[in-house]
Description:
Radius of gyration: 21 Å
Helix content: 25-40%
Shape: elongated
Number of domains: 2
Amino acid sequence: MARPEPGRLIVIPTPIGNLEDMTYRAVRVLQELDALACEDTRHTRRIFERYGIERPQILYSCHGHNEKGAVRRTLSLLNDGYDVGLCSDAGMPGLADPGQLVIQEALEAGYEVDVLPGPSAVPTALLAAGVKAAQFAFLGFLPQRRARRRRALELYLESDTALVIFESPRRVGKLMAEAAEIFGERRGAVCLELTKKFQRVERGILAELAYEFAEADPRGEAVIVIGGANTAPAPERDLGRLA
Length: 243
């Protein structure tokens, strides 16, 4: 509802696959909002139907092709006193999903931004992978050009930092082969369809995963986890030199 004072931008995570993963708080906020920006209004309608949420008075799209226009509309609504929700099709808006520009511009304009905790493919995949991960880096979608992609990975060549990467399922085999070439015998995982009925998590040495997915045609969203340098076997000591 419009108020005399400026509104808030509320970032609302949504399930990455299983609709039962909505939080009570996210459902309540969606029920109370009069304005909502979402990546695909048709996709968000499934959540409305699942939880009996009435369509907000103001519902508009915010995706990669119209985000600048969505920013202008969002700032106008915030200025008019509306609390505006922001959600993507799955997971946390702004993490390799539309929404980051809206959040940045709202903050720069002086509006309050409230981020709700909730589902995200990044920690889900990281824990499912089972690799050592005292620290990790989320790389999102890597560059499509091979040289740029390799440079992005080689930054972590000597690091114990685990890597979490989003990838198209049809390019999983290619990425795992490059990762095995760069990182050697580190461990990793390929996570497919996380939280869904046909969830699949394959774990192993990077070269093994590259072989497994070389000719495979997996379906659904893919999240790749590459363990840090501390997941590779320790080099054997040359006992001859110690004699």
